[in-house]
Protein 1
Amino acid sequence: MNSETRQAIWNVSVSPHIRRGVSVERIMWTVSASLMPPLILSVFIFGIQTLLITFVSVASCVAAEAVSQKLLHRPVTIRDGSAVVTGLLLAYIVPPGVPFWMPILGAVMSIYVAKHLLGGIGFNIFNPALIGRAFLVATFPVAMTSAWLIPIRDLSIFKYVGSGVDAVSTATPLYVLKHYGMAGLTERFGSTLKMYGDFFLGWQPGSIGETSALFLILGGLYLLYKGYITWHVPVSIIVTAGFLTWVFGGERYFTGDPILSVISGGLILGAIYMATDYVTSPTQPSAKLIFGAGIGVLTVLIRLKGGYPEGICYAILLMNPLAPALETWFRPKRFAPPKGAMK
Amino acid sequence: MNRELLTFPKGGIHPPEHKEISEHLQIERMPIPAEVDILLQQHFGAPCSPLVKKKDIVNEGDVIGTVSAGLGASVHASVTGTVKNIGTSPHPTSVKAPSITILTDTQAQPRTYGPADWKAMPRDEMLSRIKEAGIVGIGGAGFPTHVKLAPPPAAKVDTLLLNGAECEPYLTTDHRLMLESPGDVVGGASIILRILGINECKIGIEANKPAAIDAMEKAVKEASSNGQRISVVPLKVKYPQGSEKQLIQSLTGRKVPGFGLPFDVSVIVQNVGTAKAVYDAVCLAKPLYEKVVTISGKGISRPANLLVRIGTRLKDIVEYLGGTKNGLAKVVMGGPMMGFAIPTLDVPVMKTTSGVLFLTEDEIDLSPHGHCIRCGWCLDACPMGLSPNEIGVYVEAGRAEDTSQFGLFECFECGCCAFVCPARRPLVQFIRLAKMKAKK
C-alpha cells in the first residue's frame, strides 16, 4: 500500500452514508415550538404566573435530567430537548393557581423516577409528564384539584399574582358537569353555544395548557404536516370519548354532549401531545387505533363512574404499559416472507 | 409526462438526489493509467485463478484469469502491457484480495472491434460469447450473466426486465449510458430476449431521467422488432426503486418470495449497463474490461462520468480530475445508500463499480447515535416490512440470534431504516452483525 495515500483519515462507517436530517433533537424542539401558542394564550386567560410555573417546570426538568444522568453515570443529553418537552407538558397539566415551586417536585418524579430509573429515553414505560402529575395529585390533592382560576376577560394579566389559591379558586366545567349536571353547567358558563365558543378558544377553568382546543389542534396539525405524529391515536381517542359520552354521558342514553366532553378538560392535549409519545405508544396504525380507543373508553369510564371529574391522565397511564404488547401483536406486513417462516 | 408512474407500494424513501452534479456531463474516456490492478474476484462465486505469470506480455482484452469449476466469470487484461505482479490489492469490502498488476505499454495501439451480425447467431454461440467476455451483473452483486441467462428449464421465464431505475442518489452512470448509447442497450435487450426465447421486455427508468426515457423510447422505435415487444416504463422516483424485488413488483405486480429468485415469478432482471455489455460481447466480441463510473460529491475537484479501464486505481482517477477538495470526510464506492466506505485510494475499479463518491462533512452526518425512541419511522420506511428497530435493540442487548423472527434474512440492506432514523442508529450495521451471528 502506498504510504502517501494513507495519511488521509476518512470515516469508514457502514452504509447508508447520508441521513434524512430529522433528528430526535429536531423533533423535540419542533414539538416544543408547537406548544408555544397555548402557553402565550394562557397568560391572557389565567395571568402572567403561568409563564413562571412553566419556566420553573422546564428548568427543573432539564436540571433533573442532567443530575439524573450524572448520578447514573450516563452521558448527559439535555440538548436533545426531550426534557424540555416533558417540562412544558408537566406545566400544562397543573392548575394555574398552584404555587410556583410545585412543578419542581413533579419534575424530579417525571425525569428521575419515571424516565431515568427505567433506563432513560426510549425505555420509559409511562409518559413521564403524566407520572409527574399523578404524583402531584397524590401528594398535593387540594392544590391539584382546586387551584383553578376564573378566566380573565379584561387583559388584567397580573390579577392573580400573589393572591392565595383559596381566595380565587373555582371549579372546572367537568367538575360542575359531574356534580351539578348540564343545568349547573349552563347556569355557570352560559348557553351551550357560548360555552362551545369560549371553551374551544380556551376561556374555561382548567390546567395551564389544556384549555385551548383551537391552539392545541393547530399545533397537532402542524406536527401531522411535519410527519412527526399520525392521526390514528388522537382521532381514535376523540371519537371514542365523544361517542361514549354521547351514549352514556347524559341523564338518559344518547343525550350526552360529545362536543363539550371533547373541548373541556385535558382530552385534546392528552390525545395530541401525550398519547402520541413514541416510546409509550405502539407504532402500527391498527395498534394505534386500539390504543386510542382504550384511552377513550377509560377516560369516559373515569369521568362518568370514577371519583375524579377528569380521566385522561390515568387513562393514558393505564394504556401505556399495554403498548409493548400491542407492538408485539401488531407487526408490519412483510413483503413476501418465505414459506414456513416465523411470523 | 402524463402517464401514471408505476411504483412499489410498501415503504421507500425520497433522499435528495444530487444527480445535478454529474447528470449533464458527457461520458468522458479517461487516459489509460500507467498501471492497473485486475482483481481476480469481481463476481458472485469462486475467485479466478491467474492464467499468466509475472513478466508475461498481455494484450488488451486477453483472458488473464478464469474460474475452472463452479460459478464465476473470467477477468481480462484491460490494457496492453507486462504483468508486473501477481499479488494482492486493496478491495472495497474484503480489505485485501488477490489481483494481477499490469504495467501499461504506452506505445500499444488500442484494440478495435468490428460488428458481427448477431441476428444469425445461434443461441449457444451468443451465450458462450457472453461467458468469454466475463460479463457479470454490473448493477450490483456481480452475478455471472451467462449463468443467469440459462435458467433451469422448470423456470418458465416470460419477461425480461431491464433496470434503468438508478435510484441511488448521485449516480448518473446508467442515465448517461441510456442517453448516449440507447441503441446498444436496446440491442443488448434484443439479444437477451433471443437467448431466453421470449419476446417481452420492459425497461424501467425513474421519471427523474426524462431525457434518458426519450432516448430509450426512440431507440426502441428504431430497432427492428422481429416480434419482440420492448417497452420503456417510467417509474416513480422512490428509493429503492432499482432493488430487484421492488422493481419486479413495480413493473409486473409480482412478488418474489423470501429467499426466492426472480425466475420464481417468471422474470429475469438485468441492469441496463449489463445489457450494453451483452451487446458489446455478442455483437463486437468485446470483453468487459472498461466501465462507466460516476465520480461525484462535493469533495472532488471535477465531477465526471468517466469511462475507465477496469483495474484503474482510484488515486489515478482523483489525479486526473484535479484532486480532492478540503473537507473530504468519506470516500464511498457505489451509491450513498448501499455503497462501501473505503479507507484508501489504492482500491481499483471493478466490473461492478458504478460510482465513487467523495463526500464532505456537510454531505454526511457523523454525529453519534442514541437510543431507539420507538418512533416507528424505520417500520414505515422498510420496503420489506421488517422491524429494523427491534433487530437493533436485540443486537445491542446481545440477543442477535433471536432476530430472525423480524425477517432478518429478507433484509437486503437498502438503508432506508437508518436513513430515516432520528436517533441516527446504525441499523444496517446492527443487521449485518445480526446476520453474521445468526448464521453461526
Note: The first strand of chain B starts at residue 27 and ends at 29.
Protein 2
Amino acid sequence: MSPDQTTFHAALLDPESAVPEGLSGPDNHPAGRRFDVYRNNVAVSLTEALHTAFPTIARLLGKQNMDGLARLYLRAHPPQTPLMMHYGGAFPDFLAGMPQLAHLGYLPDIARLDLAMRRAYHAADAAPADLSDIAPETLLQSALSLAPAMQLIRSAWPIHAIWRFNTEEGAPKPEPGPEDVVILRPAYDPLPQRLPPGGAAFLQALVDGATVAAAHETACTETPGFDPGPVLALLIRGAAITGLANQD
Amino acid sequence: MLDTGHPTRLPAAPGVGFKPQHFAAITENPGAVRWIEIHAENYMGDGGRPLAQLRALAERFPVSVHGVGLSIGGEGPLDPDHLARLKHLVSWLDPASFSEHLAWSTHDSHFLNDLLPLPYTKDTLTRVAAHIDQVQDNVGRPMLLENPSSYLAFDDSTWSEPEFLAELSKRTDCGLLLDINNVFISATNLGFSPQGYIDAFPLDRVGEVHLGGHDEDHDDHGAPLLIDSHGRAVADPVWALLAYTLARSGPRPLLIEWDTDVPDWPVLEAEAARAAHALVPAG
C-alpha cells in the first residue's frame, strides 16, 4: 500500500521518521533518500522564505543560526496559506520564546519591524491627499485617512538604530533606549523612520480615528509639550495622508 | 480556444519566468523574449511594486499565470479562499494562459511549498478531475495542467503518467503544460524512456512547454538522481528532447524557468534565444 497524504506529510516534516513504505525507485528498490529530496525541498524553500521575510534577523544572527532557527520554526509553524509573503507571522513570538536567545531581548521587536516592512511593501496603493489648500484650523478638526502601507511599531529597544546599523554602511552604533518607528511608503520602497517622543501615541490616536487636535491632546498626556508639526510633516513627505474627514 | 486542443493565447515563441530584478532590462530590450510567466501567488498582495510591475508588463507582453499553491492533487477539498484569489487575479489581468500542477502541496491546512507526488490510480484520477472541473468553473476559463518531476514512484500506481494526463485532459477539457525538463528528470530517476513518454503524450493538448535546469545527484544504490532545481542553464539532453518533441507537436510557446541562483538578464535572454532557434526547424 502506498502512503496517503497524512502519512506522507507527517514523514516530510519529521526528518527522524522512517520513509513511508510503498514508494520506490527503479528496480523496486525502496525510495530511501529519494524521499529526502522532498523533505529537503520543503525545508529549503521554507527556510529561504524566512530569510527573505526577516533580512535583519538573518544579518544579526548569521546564516547558520538563521537556518537552524528556521528549521525549528517551520516544523512548529508550517505555513497556513500558499502566500509565502504572509509566512512568518508567529516568528517574533517564537524568537521571544527561545531561552537561548533571551540575552538578545531586542530580537522579537526587530522581527516585528521586518514583518511590518513586508506588510508595507505589499499593502494597497493609496494616492496622497492634496493638503495645499487646507487651512490649519480645518486640519486640526479633521480625522485623517492614512495609507494602508503605514505601519507603527513601539519598542523598549533601539530598533531603528539596530535596523540602520545592519542595513546602512557606516551607520552609528546603536545606543540603549526605547525607539518608536513609523514605516512609510512614499512610492514602492518602505522606509522605517524614528518617531520623536509622543509621536507614536499621536499616530496611534490618529489610526484609532481621533482628530488631529484630539490626537495632539492624547500625545501631550504622555509627552507634555509634544509638537505634532514634525510628525505631520513626516506623514506628508511619506505620502501617508490619503484623505481628511472633517469632524464639524 | 478549446477547439484548438490547447487552451492558450500565448505565441509559439520563447518566454521567461519573470523575476523583479529583470524588470528594467526586459522593458528596455526583451531580445528574443516574447512573453512572460509569473507565479500567481507572488501577485496576490494588495498593492505595491509587484502589482505595479505586473500591470506595466501586461501592457507590453502576453502574460501566463502559473499557480504553484492550489494543491489540485490534494486529498482534501480545494481551498476556497485560494480559488477566490486566483479568480480575482485572472479576472483583472486577463492573462493569455492559466496553468497549475499535477501535484499536492497542502494537507491539513499546512502549505508545504513544494510540488508533491501522486499515485496514478482510479481514485486519484476521479479526485483530480473533480478539482480541475471546480477550478475551471470557478476561474471561468480552461486551464493547463503540468506534468511533475518525480524522484520516486508509488507502488499503487496503475497508470503511466502520460496516459493519466491524457485521461484527465479528456475528462475535463483542460489543456496540458509539458515540462520537458521534468520528463527528462523523471525518466532518468525512474528508468523509463523519455522519448517513449513523449510518444505516449497527447501533444495536441499541449498549450505550453517548460524548459529549465536540473542538478545531478544519486540515490542509495548509486543510480542517477536528477533534482529539479531551476538553478542553471537547460541541459543539452533536454534541448535534444525538446527538438524530438517539437518535431512531433509543431511549434509551441516555450518557457525558460530559472528560479534559483537567478542570472543577470543577458544570460536568461540567451537561453530564450536558444529556444527561439529550437522553434525554427519545427516551424
Note: Chain B has nine helices and 13 strands.
